[in-house]
Amino acid sequence: MKGPFVPWLFILGVFVLRETQAALHSLETQFTGLAITNNLPDIIFNVWVDSQLLFSYNTQSKELLIKLGWAYPPLKNKLMERLNQQLQQGAEDDLRRFCTYWMVSYNETWEIQITQVTVFCELDGDIQVDSQMRVAFDGETVCQLDEHSEGWVTKKAEVTRFCKYLEDSVQWDRLLIEECPKFLKVVLDLFHLKENEPPEVTVSRQDAPDGRITLFCTARGFYPRPILLHWEKNGQMGIWGKESSSGTLPNADATFYLQVIVELQPRDPGEGYACAVEHHQLGTPAIYPAPRKVTRGKSWELSPSISITTILVLISAVTFIIWRKKDAWGHRTQERNTEEGTSSC
After folding, report:
1. What is the secondary structure of 137-206 as a DSSP string?
2. Dihedral sign for Cα atoms in the order 193, 220, 280, 144
3. Which of 22, 184, 209, 238 is 20 to 30 A off residue 7, Cα-Cα?
4. CATH code of 263's domain
5. How far from 264 is each of 6, 148, 209, 216, 259, CA to CA, in Å?
6. What does the record list as GO biological process (predicted)?
7. What is the model's pTM?
8. Do 162 and 22 fall within a single domain?
9. Do 106 and 162 meet the contact criterion of CB atoms below 8 Å apart?
10. d(Cα 143, Cα 54) in Å, to the nearest integer?
């Protein structure tokens, strides 16, 4: 294969870059090759920014669609024109050759096979904090490259030859360190993505009949995606029980949702706990105390004075009702006696 098949994606470097806003943003590009029997694989190409789908393309429709946000029309038109040119001028063929080589090398008796190539990078302002590249076959990663490794890491022994081929064929390190961050900066410059939103955080508590205590910390409606939630006790981090997480999930409005749960150890009264939240829009970490146990019991155990007062009020009410009934009965008796006396006269 002649030269890299991916850098055509990053032609947007022709645009002038401004300093990236100080926030954590990520870019993920994924090429999926789907092959049935001996046909050339169909290629699906997607680009996500901050876990939101931005571009989509497939070789059947040959349409490049912008899925998210907007760009100034002249720049948008130039972008679409350049990308379509690159696709039509050989990028599809490069991708097909790559996928075909991989499929045949890994399994020569395939009928339906799926090959995926994923490139990922993450920036905090202008600082690159992560970069990875993965090749997967039928959903299983077989070769991986990141900024910390000196070369491709083979995940399955039987594909060592193919991973070696990847290492010798393309300057992948340049793709991860230079091209991917450059493209992410261009996208952040040109596209109006979701406005940054701080998380709305709620902390709740559940007391089970058997005495077990579960604490819930929920963050809603935040953007961008990166966020950190953890439990503290008396200001200290630690493992306080069985923890679980929903994972960061997308909402319909392009914001995100995350819930972390901790089931405390038996006999832990649940005092002194708080959920610590870190997000770009909060500035500094925010602390949200967990609610204390709501004591429930018999009313006279909770407040004897209230019980006594209630009893006295009830006694007074009953006495008043009895007195009224006696008074009414006395009046009726007197009226009856008067009527009887008049009749006898």
Report:
1. ETTEEEEEEETTSSSPEESSGGGHHHHHHHHHHS-HHHIIIIIHHHHHHHHHHH---PPPBPPEEEEEEE
2. negative
3. 22
4. 2.60.40.10
5. 49, 37, 14, 11, 16
6. immune response
7. 0.57
8. yes
9. yes
10. 26
Please give the pLDDT value at position 300.
Answer: 37
- Give me the amino acid identity at 90: G
Helices 92-106 and 160-169 sit at what angle, rounded to 10 degrees?
150
Name the packing angle between helices 73-86 and 180-190 (round to 10°). 150
- Rg value, the chain, Cα: 35
Nearest to 200 by CA among 217, 183, 186, 225: 217
Mean predicted lDDT score pLDDT of the chain? 74
Nearest to 10 by CA among 194, 192, 185, 143: 185
The last residue of a domain, from among 160, 190, 220: 190
Q: How far apart are CA 260 and CA 245, in angstroms?
A: 4
55: number of Cβ within 10 Å: 20
Residue type (1 letter), 181: P
Confirm if 59 and 115 have CB atoms less than 8 A apart: no
Helix (H) or strand (E) holding 314: helix 304-344
Residues contacting 196, CB < 8 A, separation 6+:
23, 223, 224, 280, 281
- Looking from the CA of 237 toward its CB, the CA atoms found within 13 Å total 5
CATH code: domain of residue 113: 3.30.500.10
Strands 286-289 and 127-137, bridge-based pairing: unpaired
- Phi and psi at residue 257, in whole multiples of 5°? -135, 140
Q: What is the mean pLDDT of residues 140-148?
A: 81
pLDDT at 128: 84
Residue 163 binned pLDDT confidence (cut-offs 50, 70, 90): confident
- Per the structure block, which two tokens stand in for 95? 């991708």
Residues 244 and 307 in one domain: no
Q: Which domain holds residue 322?
A: 300-330
